[in-house]
């Protein structure tokens, strides 16, 4: 199943200044993800997993080391290129869904395609299949506030999938959901993985991480490969 | 992102926050309404000035003479003009008339006059310019020491001819005077006092007077001293009931019948010159023969061919008149300057009101800026989401800028509508408003500029937000 490298991180360091001291959050990270992998990054709070996710998602810069995403050297990329990479290569799924409350389900889902310069009609056509697959076709004109947590996360997944990204990047995707909705979302992730999507999921929950085919642990800014979950 | 899609997002956001948009744009509403009204008032003022001065030509110069009056002191010190009214000098007897002067009115004492005796009906019949005075006495006993304008001078057609002959660059010249006369005829039962103007045939054209019925006074009327008259519109209505009835009727001026040869169209109120609507116009020489004698203070009006040449013409007129009247200082008023002064005061008023409107706009703009800052703060997460999904700085900047512009434009449109609604109310306060499409467009442009200027900074701040920080904002 494993193919070309999607993520290739070498000796990545990241720190933040806290007053006069520098706090090293990521220490010499070496991490790779191949096309079609479903990887979980498991770690407790404060371990640096969110910082790692932000760097993988091109929303934050690294202090040293190198990071290639689909062969593109992100460590050298300018802001304009990063914007384009975020739009074309990455599909974000956030813990708190991060849907725009004033927009309808459809408007939220097509947003990444509109950002690309696509017109609304074409964008809506492009998203029809994904919405059917996620059972959102009857909800297109609803506002996020009119949906359940599980449904909101499905909208967020649909938004991430519509742009046909190289990488689905999920940050605690079940963190705000009850167990049944969480399971539903994780089943969906498995389905998406089976369809060939590359998924990186950040979680602190071992039970959630078990759904991934590969788990890496992050502890105090250092990354450790775990044996494949059985 | 396509501009049309950004506009669609703006539309969605504005619809979601209708009430906030309305409250935010109140400053712009007031500013736009003020701008429209200010422009309307400015145009109204300009139209008012144009109307009030329509009987004046911009190149016209009025030349008149005012005899100096001794301000105090001995009554023999200089003397005063006899006045042009019928009763004027007749009621104030000259020394040669044999009556005692009224010492309680020292400042208006008559001069010694060689021909100052009262003529028929007590009217002065002599030429006062032939009289003499004692200017030295005036200064000795506390009167004016200035020898200028101490003698009585009556401008005449000869003076007018001197001017037209010696002053280059004139297109026309005329001479006229006014006097108060008792009138009866038509529907009026008792005599009424009216302004009677003695004019030449070219007066109507030079004063932009238009006829409703008949013709204006002709050269032959003047040469033959015909007893014909032209009535102003209001005078005709008051005396005969209508302009039509007045035409070809008889009106009695100082008990002599005059045929109404024409009636003027309504001219409206005027700021300078003779108020034509209430006046009666007669031939210049007829008036001198039957009404005033030479006891008049005429005004010579000349028109400069080139308005820009007014100063030179004024100097030349003074020089031309100085030959015949070396001691006289004539009053020369330039119609263009009067119009310019009136327009200037109107412009000042407009400028002041515009400054006021600009302040309102600035306050409105600051209001918009504040609301946008709050909006950026409130929507930080939304900005973070858009950035995470691949929204560029340009997209975010444009979205917030367009929101500010739309809010301002909505305010501008409401402001224009408000100005249309309140214009009748303002008119009731006596201000003339000339509403115009250009005023509305300027107000909308001002609104748009305000939105753009004051919306830029919050929009720029929004576009500069770091996606990670924006997403984690509570």
From TrEMBL, chain A:
Query: Gene3D superfamilies, per this entry?
Result: P-loop containing nucleotide triphosphate hydrolases (3.40.50.300)
What InterPro entries does UniProt report for this protein, alphabetically?
Answer: AAA+_ATPase (IPR003593), ABC_transporter-like_ATP-bd (IPR003439), ABC_transporter-like_CS (IPR017871), ABC_transpr_LolD-like (IPR015854), MacB-like_ATP-bd (IPR017911), P-loop_NTPase (IPR027417)
PROSITE patterns per the UniProt record, alphabetical: ABC_TRANSPORTER_1 (PS00211), ABC_TRANSPORTER_2 (PS50893)
- Ranges for domain ABC transporter come to 7-230
Domain of life from the UniProt record: Bacteria
Alphabetized SMART domains for the sequence:
AAA (SM00382)
* Keyword terms: ATP-binding, Nucleotide-binding, Transport
Name of the molecule in the record: Putative ABC transport system ATP-binding protein
TrEMBL record, chain B:
Which keywords has UniProt assigned to this entry?
Cell membrane, Membrane, Transmembrane, Transmembrane helix
| Record localization | Cell membrane
Principal subcellular localisation of the protein: membrane
Query: GO molecular function of the protein, one example?
Result: transmembrane transporter activity
Tell me which domain of life the UniProt entry assigns to the organism this sequence originates from.
Answer: Bacteria
Tell me the Pfam families matching this sequence. FtsX, MacB_PCD
GO CC terms for this protein? plasma membrane
Q: Which InterPro entries match?
A: ABC3_permease_C (IPR003838), MacB_PCD (IPR025857), Macrolide_Exporter_MacB (IPR050250)
Q: How does it sit in the membrane?
A: Multi-pass membrane protein
**Which stretches does UniProt call biased (Gly residues)?**
75-90
The ABC3 transporter permease C-terminal domain extends over: 356-466
TM ranges are 21-42, 349-375, 396-423, 435-457
Annotated region Disordered: the residues are: 72-129
MacB-like periplasmic core domain sequence ranges: 22-319
Similarity annotation: Belongs to the ABC-4 integral membrane protein family.
Q: What protein name does the entry list?
A: Putative ABC transport system permease protein
Query: What species was this sequence derived from?
Result: Ruminococcus albus
């Amino acid at each position: 199943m494993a193919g070309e490298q999607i993520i290739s991180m070498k000796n990545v360091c990241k720190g933040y200044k806290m007053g006069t001291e520098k706090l090293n959050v990521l220490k010499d990270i070496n991490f790779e993800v191949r096309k079609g992998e479903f990887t979980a990054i498991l770690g407790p709070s404060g371990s640096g997993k969110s910082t790692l996710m932000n760097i993988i998602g091109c929303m934050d810069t690294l202090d040293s080391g190198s990071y290639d995403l689909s062969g593109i050297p992100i460590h050298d990329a300018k802001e304009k290129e990063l914007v384009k990479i975020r739009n074309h290569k990455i599909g974000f799924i956030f813990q708190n869904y991060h849907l725009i409350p004033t927009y309808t389900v459809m408007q939220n889902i097509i947003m990444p395609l509109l950002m690309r310069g696509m017109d609304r009609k074409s964008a809506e056509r492009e998203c029809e299949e994904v919405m059917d697959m996620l059972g959102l076709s009857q909800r297109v004109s609803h506002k996020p506030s009119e949906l359940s947590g599980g449904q909101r996360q499905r909208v967020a997944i649909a938004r991430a999938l519509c742009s046909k990204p190289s990488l689905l990047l999920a940050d605690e995707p079940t963190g705000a959901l009850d167990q049944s909705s969480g399971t539903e979302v994780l089943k969906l992730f498995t389905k998406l993985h089976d369809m060939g999507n590359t998924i990186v999921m950040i979680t602190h929950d071992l039970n959630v991480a078990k759904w991934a085919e590969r788990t890496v642990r992050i502890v105090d800014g250092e990354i450790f490969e775990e044996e494949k979950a059985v | 992102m396509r501009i049309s899609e950004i506009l669609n997002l703006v539309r969605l956001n504005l619809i979601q926050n209708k009430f906030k948009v309305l409250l935010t744009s109140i400053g712009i509403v007031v500013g736009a309404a003020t701008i429209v009204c200010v422009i309307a008032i400015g145009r109204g003022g300009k139209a008012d000035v144009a109307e009030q001065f329509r009987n004046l030509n911009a190149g016209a110069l009025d030349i008149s003479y005012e005899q100096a009056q001794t301000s105090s002191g001995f009554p023999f010190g200089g003397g005063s003009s006899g006045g042009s009214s019928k009763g004027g000098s007749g009621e104030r007897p000259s020394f040669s008339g044999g009556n005692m002067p009224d010492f309680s009115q020292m400042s208006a004492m008559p001069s010694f006059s060689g021909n100052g005796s009262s003529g028929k009906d007590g009217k002065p019949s002599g030429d006062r310019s032939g009289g003499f005075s004692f200017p030295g006495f005036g200064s000795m006993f506390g009167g004016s020491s200035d020898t200028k304008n101490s003698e009585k001078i009556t401008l005449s057609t000869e003076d007018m001819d001197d001017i037209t002959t010696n002053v280059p660059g004139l297109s026309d010249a005329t001479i006229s005077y006014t006097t108060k006369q008792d009138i009866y005829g038509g529907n009026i039962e008792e005599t009424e006092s009216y302004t009677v103007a003695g004019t030449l045939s070219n007066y109507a054209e030079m004063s932009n007077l238009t006829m409703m019925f008949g013709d204006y006074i002709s050269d032959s009327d003047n040469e033959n001293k015909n007893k014909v008259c032209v009535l102003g519109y209001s005078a005709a209505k008051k005396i005969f009931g209508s302009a039509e009835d007045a035409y070809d009727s008889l009106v009695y001026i100082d008990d002599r019948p005059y045929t109404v040869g024409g009636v003027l169209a309504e001219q409206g109120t005027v700021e300078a010159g003779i108020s034509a609507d209430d006046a009666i116009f007669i031939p210049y020489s007829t008036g001198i023969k039957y009404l005033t004698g030479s006891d008049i203070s005429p005004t010579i009006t000349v028109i400069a061919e080139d308005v820009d040449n007014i100063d030179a013409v004024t100097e030349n007129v003074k020089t031309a008149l100085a030959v015949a009247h070396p001691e006289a200082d004539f009053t020369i008023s330039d119609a263009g300057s009067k119009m310019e002064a009136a327009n200037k005061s109107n412009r000042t008023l407009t400028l002041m009101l515009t400054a006021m409107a600009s302040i309102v706009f600035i306050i409105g703009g600051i209001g918009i800026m504040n609301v946008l800052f709050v909006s950026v703060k409130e929507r930080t997460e939304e900005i973070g989401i858009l950035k995470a999904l691949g929204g560029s700085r340009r997209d975010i900047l444009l979205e917030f800028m367009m929101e500010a512009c739309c809010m301002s434009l909505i305010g501008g449109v409401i402001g224009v509508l408000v100005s249309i609604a309140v214009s009748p109310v303002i008119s009731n306060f006596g201000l003339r408003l000339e509403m115009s499409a250009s005023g509305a467009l300027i107000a909308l442009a001002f609104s748009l500029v305000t939105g753009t200027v004051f919306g830029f900074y919050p929009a720029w701040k929004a576009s500069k937000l770091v996606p990670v920080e924006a997403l984690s904002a509570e």
